[in-house]
Design brief:
The structure is a homooctamer of 169-residue chains.
Chain A: E1 2-6, H1 12-24, E2 29-33, H2 40-48, E3 57-62, H3 68-74, E4 80-84, H4 93-100, E5 109-110, H5 116-128, H6 132-168
Parallel strand pairs in A: 1-2, 1-3, 3-4, 4-5
Chain lengths: 169, 169, 169, 169, 169, 169, 169, 169
């Protein structure tokens, strides 16, 4: 089971990608909203009870100061994945640095800006570290990614760049 | 009473300026170390009991992810001043952004990088908002600042730039 | 009484949040426009007479070079809150750095980019440092913030992420 | 088993922290040098045979363009942790962005600049996701971190800030 | 023959400029899509067979982590031109740094953000280093560029700035 | 006479502000387009003949690499004002740094991003350094700026913030 | 006469270059220290009386928030040159942006970080706009700059790079 | 023949790497100092006569505003490689952006900050595009690079990380 948590409902459109990635591999998840600054007690409780609730990894999405994954990591031994939300006045650089620059002993596994989908893939990989069947699915997914690119390249050979772009626009 | 708290003892040399600033105005303080990520329960307890302990304002110094003042602000209605520590691979930009970009409803009053002394001045100003005698001392301090600059300028007129720099080096 | 001042009328839409935050707590305010560069004498006079006019704290919003809060702080012992305006070619990084990086002895309490609302909350907290009744209101406001997040999370549990996002869009 | 790989032997002093972190938990590891740009075939072979060699997770340290963890992630379903090396003309911002901004489907779990030690902690957490005994050790480690901070704070209470800093310097 | 390769079909609208630039000089090219992370084996094969296929230079466009040109350069002695794609949360700074900051011994010739057209011009100049006829065409093209600017300036003298801007808008 | 020169006709909408500023003070100007990279001989000739043509100061607008003012400054003793154009993938930071960071001995007087109008004001001030009548006009202009701000502030007192913003939107 | 003013005596070592540049051309100057934040009344008085004192241009050096040249520009019609001081936690980017990003109507002519010498050259050019003899001296200075570079290049031809570097080290 | 040119003799220690790289392949070069801003006529003449002098490619190193390679590219059809010099107040970001962000039609092939050696490798690759024997040497060099890394990795296996680091320190 993967715990997904966001600091604000404005993060949900991107974090939907986390859900979609987990669904690709049939991995169960729970999802909630709980701000590190506006509902901090719930965040602490969430992290403290995470192991007991059966979570294996937590994916936390947040923007701006983006303390959520770091606060979770302070209260649980589980791996915590941080998804920094892009946008805002600084494009998300604030959220990225705030997540990734965690102090010695308490890491957050940070993925790309607006990387909700990749947060889900990484969660699957982490579960796969202990469950070979999941790891195999991740391998198969990566191969499918390649086939998709190859198909696009093939289509480009057929249509040429003008045709390809015209067909898409 | 002002609460001063740092995330690591490596922040103490700069935060010593906070102590010195408060001593200028005879304002009592307490000082402790309590990381938001390594000793989080103490941070939560500290913030929750701050009003009852008689604190009027908290000054929190931290570097890198620098979540400490934000986490304190989540658990207390008191004003929280953040002192971002410079240095590290990114010069402190990470700490600055992580402190200042707090979400709606939960501000941190952020001062300059390595601004421990100014954190103390701001704490005095905040206490002064409710205690006219303190505010007067702040006013007197600011006037003294000006006299110090004026004296340096006068010395520059006397010595000339070569003499002034030679005298200092 | 809180003094609110902006460098340009283009800052008013964001600084409206400052007004709204103060109204939450029933704190009186005055509001004016007075650029540090285009109407500097008024800014100096404003700062110098601030204590006598009964102000406890000043909130100053400005963009780009954003010298306004620093210039005010130079002429008054009161705490000055800076609200850096985002936008412009550099997204507001110029305004943020210009406000926060004040020299030793003359701090500006800087909040987030476009943080007009948080400027008002911080002003209330500063007044609350000397008025317990205001501090209690701030505490109650922060609890209400938490209930709002909890309600959104509850709604998310009920609707699921597709339902929640669909309902909002 | 954790695979540790660096792009240059100049990364070894920091990546030594990864080794030390794994040793805390008694987790076996292998360590080698293999640049994505100067010895690319070895990197591809390393990644492709990683599962078969019994690796559960890979920690890759690199600086500047820092493609190593991304290239590894392209060739294995295992989770890959990236440790961006600080320093250089841009302080490590180049390495950080190059690691964290991976495209959809192929994440790298990025930790802090010069975060070799945290790369090891995160690797232990990932292994712990499938091995409860390791997770317990991580939990115990985090508690020990807190005790260390608390001891420092206690010492600060005893010595005062002048005594504390004097004792350290 | 110039090899043009992009990491994603979203890069094609900009890389169309590369094609257009090469067509100006009658230089043949091949074009395909092959991600360094999603179809890595094809990228390796592409680079390894590039000399044998008759390529003289490779133009690679990619965004975000943008490892494609660096990975190509690892597997071929040919000069590789990198076209970093602008946009995304960080405006393309990530792609630019990831391309340009290559390690000692394995350079990527990086051009401007979204500089697909200039990637084509540079490819022509590189071919021209060995084919004087191509170099002459580049010289003629640069002169034509100047005539175009001069014509615009002449038109500005005739119309005045109001007329010129009015005529364009 | 002020020489105004831009690197591309896309800079004209902003540089129109330079023209407008000069017209405020009745200062004659000439305006042309001449890229440092696409029409370099004209730029060199322009700079070399500037004194003889009666120019007192040059205002040069350019974006991206933005070498134009620096190249002009290399070929003339006249003061050269640089107007960095905002926009593009990096928001104009490239143009700003390229203009302002000139080497020892050859300064460019750089104004704000998209600061075409201010380029004209600065040109007037420079001419005013030698022509008291122009300097007086600049002084009068600055006073008018202040009156405009004061009038807006007065209007804000009358209408209140809701009324003011409503009236503008 | 050129007015030179710095915000702190720590700026004097760099601003010494301004003095040296002016001495090259025999231009008289006055020099003082007067912080915009710590001695603001003197700064206002300085600016207001600048024309009457016979100044033609002001050179102001400051670091960090670096409001000094902007505040001067607010109170005088004279051209104000800003010299942003490098160093500090952010390398001087704060000072640079705070100086250059002045609002519409009140420019500061900004030169390079630590560009004290260039501030003096620009001041001479501005005086030269009204005094042909000074402009001629600037032209002669620029030619001397070129001869110095040419001499170094000649020496490099003679010694070779090893000899040249060995001779210098 | 490769033309190597630097804007200042302070760039020579890094550009020495360019010389060393070319010597690896037995490629002749010429080397001189000629600033785009201090000796501009020589730069223009250098570029205009480059083809006639038998140059195939130019490597230009410069720091700060770093206009040199762009100015050269404006006056020659040859490919121009830019080596941005790191250091200075902004770490070299100014030089990097100024070189790489060239306008449409006039590219500069930019390599890493302080990448003098890679500038030489790229120059060899460009010459190799027309001379298969040089290209083969580049290929052999890249293989040697790999063997060097492999040897270091082998040594690491033998000594262990403590032994390896101890042996180096």
């Amino acid at each position: 089971m993967v715990g997904i948590i966001v600091g604000s409902d404005t993060d949900l459109p991107n974090i939907r990608g986390t859900v979609e990635a987990l669904q690709l591999f049939g991995i169960p998840y729970e999802l909630e909203i709980a701000s590190a600054h506006r509902l901090p007690d719930r965040v602490v409780e969430y992290a403290r009870t995470a192991v007991a609730r059966g979570l294996k990894v937590i994916v936390a999405g947040a923007g701006a100061a983006a303390h959520l994954p770091g606060v979770l990591a302070a209260h649980t031994p589980l791996p915590v994945i941080g998804v920094p939300m892009g946008g805002g006045a600084l494009g998300g650089l604030d959220a990225l640095l705030s997540m990734v620059q965690m102090p010695k002993g308490v890491p957050v596994a940070t993925v790309a800006l607006n990387g909700g989908f990749n947060g889900g893939i990484l969660a699957a990989q982490i579960i796969g570290a202990g469950e070979p069947a999941v790891l195999e699915k991740v391998g198969a997914y990566k191969e499918a990614l390649g086939r998709d690119v190859a198909a696009k390249s093939q289509r480009l050979q057929t249509l040429g760049i003008k045709g390809y772009l015209g067909a898409d626009k």
